[in-house]
Amino acid sequence: MTLFRQLMLTIIAIFSLMLAVVMGIDFNATKGYLIGQLESTTQDSATSLSMSVSDFMALEDYASVESSINAVFDSGYFSEVRIHVYDTDKDISRSNETIINGVPKLVYTADRFFKVPVAKAVISNGWSELEQVYITGSAGYGYNQLWLATRDLLISFLSSARLHSL
Q1: Which of 44, 80, 101, 109 has the most C-beta neighbours closer than 10 Å?
Q2: Residue pLDDT, tens place only, 20-48
Q3: In the chain, where are the structural domains located?
Q4: What confidence tier does 110 reach under pLDDT thresholds 50, 70, 90?
């Protein structure tokens, strides 16, 4: 093997290793950011919902409670919004299946990358605890953003390698 081929193989190996390391770092940083944002959003929504429905729950106005649940559910990236009523031991909830569009199945199989947060908040009226709010985040948006970031980084590395090889 000529010296030129040895140098080229060494450069390709170093470039590939660098790509793998940078992609791993970027993947973990993006994942951490997205999970943090989802945790923050779910907790803020749970707290807000608990405060907004406390008067309705005290009056047992379950139609208004359901409207509030629908408003929160439709405005966020949640897979479930549920209120557990202590007195009747029943749940008022809205949920749907997580849909992940445009992402290769390899990226999201077995939900191994995202631990979907569940936020809780207590609904109270005065000193009395009436109910508990549970909001479960949806990993669909996170997986989509994670895939886009990884794909864009891979494309930029490959285009950079192609430019350097010319």
Answers
A1: 80
A2: 898 889 888 988 898 899 899 999 999 99
A3: 3-165
A4: very low
